[in-house]
Each structure stands twice: as C-alpha cells, then as structure tokens.
Amino acid sequence: MNTALVIIDIQNDYFPQGKCELFQSEQALKVTKRLLEHFRERKLPIFYVQHISSEGAAFFLPNTKGVQLHKEIEPLSSEYIIVKHTPNSFHETTLQEKLTSLSIKNLVMCGKMTHMCVDTTVRAAKDLGHLVTLISDACATKDLEWNGRKLPQIICCKCHVNPDCHDCTFSIKNSVLSSDRTQETAPAAVTQNGKQRL
Questions:
Q1: Which of 53, 72, 124, 187 is the least buried, fewest Cβ under 10 Å from its Cβ?
Q2: 26: number of CA atoms within 13 Å, CB side?
Q3: Enzyme catalytic residues
Q4: What residues contact 57, with CB distance under 8 A and at least 6 apart?
Q5: Helix (H) and strand (E) counts for the chain?
Q6: Which residue(s) pair with 108 in the sheet?
Q7: E strand or H helix at 37
Q8: CB burial of residue 118 (10 Å; 0-12, 13-18, 19+)
Q9: Running along the chain, 198 residues long, what does each successive block of 10 average in pLDDT?
C-alpha cells in the first residue's frame, strides 16, 4: 500500500456563492468524488489539504463557511486532514511526515487552484522523491489573462500552457479509472487517453 490520494483545497470559497469562485469548480468536484470512491473501495490512504488564510485575506478566512471542506467530500474518520497556510501543501505541515510513516511514495493529486497550490504542491512532491500523478479534470482554477489574452484552462507544466510538453516532470492524466490495471504499487488513476509521462 504505497499509493495515496491527495485532495488540495476543495473548499467552499471556490464554489458558487464563495469568495473566489473558480472556472468549472463543480465539474472538477464530480470527478474528485469518483476518485474518492475508487480509493475508498480499495482502502487506500486519502489526504485532504485545507488552506486556512490569515486575517485580512480575501478568502479562506478562519471560522467561516468558506474555509470549510466541501460537504460532498466530507472526510471519514480514517482519512487525514492536513492544514496549510501557504500554496505548498508540504511547507510547515505534517503531510510528508504522514506519508513517510505509511511508506507512501506514489501520489495521485487533484484540487484547486491548478496554477497555484496544485502546481506548487506537485513540484514539491516531486522534489521530495514522490511519483506524482495529477488528475487534470479533477482540478480547477480561475480564468487567467496574459497580455490581454485569455489563457486556456490547461494543466500547468514547465511551459505552463502545453499539456504535451516533453519537459514535464510529473504525469498528467484524465480521470478514466480502470480497476483491472490499477495496482497499489502504481499510481491509482489510470487513463485511456491522457498524458502518461514522468
């Protein structure tokens, strides 16, 4: 059992009526729920990362509804909640300590925002020696603009806009799950048509 699911910042403020609604946030949530079912059926470890901002921030304020994890992915008592205060889910948190204690090296990751906390956490995980699989359609972010042009909602990689970039240091996959190909010793989300490069 050396594979775990890490769900990053799926909190109320990123949804409609929240303080920082993201593009297709609810669609990404549906995919995340399928991932949760997949991991729970196989009794694999699940980590929820929850961002809590300092007072005066625009969203994820302490003791608000917006900072809470979305009710549709409520953690079970056997699952782990990691609280963070920066984009990096490993920075000054217990995440790496918990993963090490469970001998976990393979991480399946998803969450929000793709270009901030997800991107930062994936890179940190790779630097720490983890094999990372990022589930693209279980991620969401804002509509971004650069020099007056709207950027497409595509997973960040080294080039930040091209999912076919051959310089990527992690695997980008869609959420198609195949139980006959999934093993505990490999990333638990397998795709039929997504990027599969490490």
A1: 72
A2: 4
A3: 9, 84, 117
A4: none
A5: 3, 8
A6: 5, 133
A7: helix 25-41
A8: buried
A9: 93 94 93 95 97 92 95 96 97 98 96 93 96 93 79 46 43 49 34 32
